[in-house]
Fold N-acetyltransferase.
Amino acid sequence: MRKTFLVNDRIYLRAVEPEDMDIMYEMENDPSLWDISNFTVPYSRYVLRQYIEGSQCDIFADKQLRLMILRKSDHCVLGTIDITDFVPLHSRGEVGIAIHKDYRQQGYATDALKLLCEYAFDFLSLSQLYSHVATDNEVCIKLFTFCGFVQCGLLKNWLQVEGTYKDAIIFQCLNPTKQ
């Protein structure tokens, strides 16, 4: 029997749709999430619309994949999870995850990260996923560790947040079938 990807008993992951514009606009412009990104200006609705319309939803064409995280019971958008900086030659990509402030600390990030890893390894056949996490972000450190990522490095003064530099941990998860 063929395995179903991107769904479990609580959530499912799906491609970005035009109706996601409002939640994406809210989350992308939330200053509390800016320290985990490399962007320095707020996103306009115009730019987000262009992103949605221009995406082929193909990690090999776009070199990234953004998926929306939805609760199965009511189809409420909980957040986003991404594979960015995808390098086909090395079969790796960076994971980013953002849960809307109203739905944090309820296990949705864990569910989403596990689903993304299964999809990346079992369907896309990626060799590895990695993430950069600020050393003071205890919630994310626990999340990645719980989901099988291991700390493999420390980047000094990697993130600048409000004029102060923070160190970042590099977390890595290798595809168990490719080791």
About this structure: The longest strand covers residues 150-161. The domain at 11-127 is CATH 3.40.630.30 (Aminopeptidase).
